[in-house]
Amino acid sequence: MTKRNELASSTKSNKIIYWISTIWLALGMLSSGIVQLFQVKEGVDFIIKMGYPVFFLTILSVWKILGVVVLLIPKFPVLKEWAYAGFFFAMSGAVFSHFAAGNAVNEIVPSLLLLVLTVVSWSFRPAERKIILVNP
Question: Would residue 17 count as lying in a domain?
Answer without folding.
Answer: yes
